[in-house]
Specification:
By secondary structure, the protein is mainly alpha-helical. The chain folds into two domains: 62 residues, no CATH class; 68 residues, no CATH class. Helix 2 crosses helix 3, helix 6 packs antiparallel against helix 7 and helix 7 packs across helix 9. The protein starts with 8 loop residues before the first helix and ends with a helix.
Length: 164
């Protein structure tokens, strides 16, 4: 087993007993009205007075730029690869939505679909889609969805209408 202690400058810099990052943060918090140039001068002065701080800054700089100059650059993606990535993201979003239980959907009347009657499904079909109209035709007017259908059967009705 190989232990990777990190290669990035920020990760390696965090190993030091002093933190240039914390020093800069403190300068910014202490002097929020200073301009960038003044902040840089003060930071340089602070780092220059502390040998450990100087070592941490040099380590950070060296690691980042050494890696930048010696490692091959990441290959830019072409259009087809970007499209494939977008399609996978869309498919994943659809798959997450498919996991929503239809019987648990809450309608404007405050009832879950499992508690809605054939009449209510017909009434909501113009607002929420033809699958509810198809569902309402499979129910008696006062019969609830949950009395007649389980989640799997309901998903089959939904999918059959959405596939058209």
């Amino acid at each position: 087993m190989e232990l990777n202690l990190g290669q990035t400058g920020a990760k390696r810099q965090a190993w030091h007993s002093v933190s240039p990052r914390d020093a800069l943060k403190l300068l910014i918090e202490t002097h929020p009205n200073w301009q960038r140039d003044r902040m840089l001068r003060e930071f340089r002065s602070l780092v220059g007075k502390d040998e450990k701080m100087t070592a941490a800054v040099i380590d950070y700089f060296f690691t980042n730029f050494y890696n930048y100059l010696t490692e091959p650059p990441e290959k830019p993606r072409d259009h087809e690869e970007n499209v494939a990535i977008a399609i996978r993201a869309i498919e994943n979003a659809i798959a997450r939505q498919a996991n929503i239980k239809l019987l648990e959907l809450v309608f404007p009347n405050g009832k879950r679909l499992s508690e809605c009657t054939g009449e209510q499904c017909r009434a909501y079909s113009s607002k929420f889609g033809g699958w509810l109209l198809k569902l309402s035709k499979l129910l008696k007017p006062k019969q609830t969805v949950g009395e007649k259908f389980g989640e799997e059967a309901l998903r089959g009705i939904y999918d059959s209408v959405k596939a058209i």
